[in-house]
Design goal:
mainly alpha; two-stranded antiparallel sheet; 2% strand
Amino acid sequence: MKYKVKWIEDHMGITRNMIRRYEKKGVISKNENGKDREFDEADLIQLWNIRVMVSLGFSLDEVKEIMCGSNLREVSEKRLKILKEECRDLQGKINFLNVVKTTGEIPSCFKRSTNHFEEIYNLGLVQYVSPFERAKDIWSLIDMLQLLHELCETNDKGIIDELYEWYGIGNDRDVFVQVFETYLLCDVRFEEIFGKEKCCELSALIANYGK
C-alpha cells in the first residue's frame, strides 16, 4: 500500500516542509520523479523514527548518522546524559523559584567565598533542594521527620536547633530557614504526612528562627 504526503500530514503530523527538510539534509532519499511522492510502510516507519528522534532533541545531522548505522545505544546514552544535566539545571531553577515565591525575596549567596556570578548562582541551585532530597538515607529522612513531629507537638525552638544541625549547612541559617519555610508549604510530601495546617504552623515557626 502506498501513502501520499497528505495522508502523512493528517495521520502522522509530519508536514510536506518537514519531509523536504529531511530530503535536503539527506536523512531520507530525494524525490527524483517530480511527482507527488508516495511512501510505503517501511518509509512510514523511517519517517516516524526520524520524528521521534528529532522530538528527543537529536539534530538532523545526528539522525542521519544514526540512520547510516551509528550505534543507537551509544548515541542514546550521550543524549540521555545531556538531558539529565538539563533536568538537574531545570530542577535547580524550580527549587530556587519555590524559595522566591514563598519568601518574596531572591536568596543571596554573597556570603560565600567566591565572587564569580556563575559559581554563586550554581551553588544556590544546589542548596535550595527539598529536605527530602537532602536526606542521605532512609534513617536520615526518619530523623528529620521525627524532629518535625516533635516540633509540631511542643513548639520547642530547641528542636529547630537540632533540625538545623541535621541539615548541615554550616553557619548559613538563612538558607536553612528559607528551604524549610518553603518546602513545608510547597512539597506535597510534607502535607501528606503532617497535614496542611500543621505544615503552615511549622513553616511559620522556622521562618522566625533566629529572629
